[in-house]
Each structure stands twice: as structure tokens, then as C-alpha cells.
Structure to design on (334 residues):
């Protein structure tokens, strides 16, 4: 086991299994995967995963004290174990931010939760904020990581030639190599949209891998080494990449289905809701400027900048701050 893995094991709570798993019908032919673990009578916390299109993983249960929290994980529309999957050509017109906010409310009502702690990172922070601003009376508090407000400059910074390419030029060249040479000075998000949704299936798969691996390889302060994948793992990785890239790109082409700067302009709706913002100082995917601007617009928030981290939630300093944040809400009245 690596030193980092050992450190994470010491920081995170022990691995646990769900006590309940179900698929919830939310209309329009959509079924959402929902699992619950921890204390069935505990304080409810909902984990809002990233992407969009990332899905949940078992290790994400470990940010919460299982004796205190009723831990709710779910896969958003089109990804993870929810159905239908974007990898199988699901109708992306049925996946947008207002629908995902409504899905969160359906889950809360279905599980008979009155109020809950909302925990989200990256796109999960985006959706958590959109939900909290729409339903502030249902939110006890927010724990957010790697703030992404889905503004145009953020998209250009990372996916076009806006800034991130200057930090990871080798990886950006690999990401950009799937694009036609004549289009590399244009809007990469729009070009990827055409490739990901075109009739050329091998090209769509190559585009999905390029898109997904650009993000995965730039999320840590120190770029992790690639471990060789078995044939089964490679097939799973390719399927995940199609899901992830198609959904994420769909949101970005459509401006997140929000007006520009909506989450900052509506931050006044968070008044009275306490929150902890955990932000890696060297986050290239979601630069710290967005976390700072959110903190300024939301006086009830606490901003914790991790000095030795990038974007990923499993970097040691970030993981420690996230666990400390959830521990800090254990005594709150739900």
C-alpha cells in the first residue's frame, strides 16, 4: 500500500456496506440508483457526486461518521448505476440542472428526510449550490470542495486554450490531439460535442477517452502514474468515459442550463445556512478564484484552502479537511 493510501486510511472512516439499495423512478423513463449506509436513524447527509456524469463509488461513504450519519449516495441521471445510461445513447435532452435539482427533492421526499447536510465537490458543488438556492429550507449546511460555478471563463480556462494548457502542456496536447488540426484554435467544447455525438463510434470513443483522461490526469497536484488495466478494467474504463464525456460536454455546451454567474448572484438565498468550502490551492480544474468569490458572496461560509493539493478529493490535506468539516456538523440540529 502506498504512503498516500495509508494516510487516507488513517483519515477516512472505515469502509462500510450499504444497508439499503434501490432504484427510484423519477419520471421520463429515468431510474436513479440510491444507497444508504451508516446509521438508519442518524443525521441525514446526501453526497452529490461530480462530473456531471461521474457517478458514486464505495469509498465516498468514508467521509462521514457512520455512527452519526445516515449516509445517502445516489447516481445522477444517465450515469453510474442509474438507467438509462449515456453510454447506451440515453436521451440527453432529459438531463439538465433543473431536473437534477428536482431529482434531489424527490429523493429527499422519498426517504422521508426533513432537512439534510449536503456534501458535494467539483460539479457536485455546482449542483449542491443550485439545490440549496432553490430549497434553502431543506438544507442544514453545505460541505463543498473544488468549487465550480460553471461560468464561461471557467470552461475556457480548462477546456479551451485559456490557461490550464500552460500548466500541463503535454497533457493538453494529448487531449487536443483527437481534434481536427484546423479546429484546434476554436471552441474545443463545441468540437468535442460533435465528435462525441456523431455517427463515427470509434471516433466518439477516442474523443471520450481524451476528454476524460485530460480531467483525470490533471486533478491531482502530483500527476499519478498510470497503472496498467486488465481487459475487463479497460472495457469498464471505456464505457465510463463515454458516459462521463457525453454528459459533461452536454452540460457545458448548454452553459450548465443556468444563466451566467447565477450561483453567485443568487448566493443571498444561502443566508443563514452554514457551510465549509475546501479548496486546493493548486486546483487547475477549478481554480481557487471561484471558491474565493463564493466565500465573499456567502458570509456564512468558512473557506479552507489546502496548501498542498489540486482538485481531487482524495488528496491527503483535502480529505482531512472534508472529514473535519463533516465531523463539525455532527452536533447540528437536523
Amino acid at each position: 500500500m502506498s504512503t498516500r493510501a495509508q494516510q487516507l486510511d488513517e483519515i477516512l472512516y472505515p469502509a462500510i456496506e450499504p444497508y439499503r439499495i434501490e432504484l427510484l423512478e423519477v419520471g421520463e423513463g429515468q431510474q436513479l440508483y440510491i444507497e444508504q449506509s451508516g446509521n438508519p436513524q442518524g443525521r441525514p447527509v446526501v453526497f452529490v457526486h461530480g462530473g456531471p456524469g461521474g457517478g458514486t463509488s464505495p469509498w465516498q461513504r468514508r467521509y462521514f461518521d457512520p455512527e452519526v450519519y445516515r449516509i445517502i449516495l445516489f447516481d445522477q441521471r444517465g450515469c453510474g448505476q442509474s438507467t438509462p445510461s449515456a453510454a447506451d445513447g440515453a436521451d440527453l435532452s432529459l438531463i439538465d440542472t433543473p431536473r437534477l435539482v428536482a431529482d434531489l427533492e424527490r429523493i429527499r421526499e422519498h426517504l422521508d428526510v426533513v432537512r439534510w447536510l449536503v456534501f458535494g465537490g467539483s460539479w457536485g458543488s455546482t449542483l449542491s449550490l443550485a439545490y440549496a438556492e432553490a430549497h434553502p429550507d431543506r438544507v442544514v449546511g453545505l460541505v463543498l470542495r473544488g468549487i465550480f460555478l460553471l461560468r464561461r471563463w471557467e470552461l475556457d480556462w480548462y477546456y479551451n486554450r485559456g490557461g490550464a494548457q500552460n500548466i500541463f502542456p503535454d497533457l493538453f496536447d494529448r487531449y487536443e490531439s483527437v481534434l481536427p488540426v484546423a479546429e484546434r484554435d476554436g471552441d474545443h467544447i463545441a468540437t468535442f460535442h460533435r465528435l462525441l455525438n456523431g455517427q463515427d463510434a470509434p471516433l466518439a470513443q477516442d474523443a471520450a477517452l481524451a476528454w476524460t483522461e485530460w480531467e483525470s490526469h490533471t486533478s491531482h497536484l502530483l500527476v499519478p502514474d498510470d497503472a496498467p488495466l486488465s481487459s475487463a478494467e479497460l472495457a469498464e474504463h471505456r464505457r465510463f468515459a463515454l458516459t462521463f464525456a457525453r454528459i459533461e460536454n452536454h452540460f457545458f455546451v448548454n452553459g450548465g442550463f443556468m444563466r451566467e454567474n447565477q450561483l453567485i448572484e443568487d448566493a443571498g438565498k444561502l443566508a443563514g445556512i452554514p457551510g465549509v468550502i475546501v479548496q486546493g490551492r493548486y486546483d487547475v480544474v477549478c481554480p481557487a478564484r471561484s471558491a474565493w468569490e463564493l466565500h465573499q458572496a456567502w458570509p456564512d461560509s468558512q473557506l479552507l484552502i489546502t496548501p498542498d493539493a489540486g482538485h481531487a478529493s482524495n488528496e491527503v490535506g483535502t480529505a482531512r479537511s472534508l472529514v473535519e468539516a463533516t465531523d463539525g456538523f455532527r452536533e447540528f440540529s437536523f
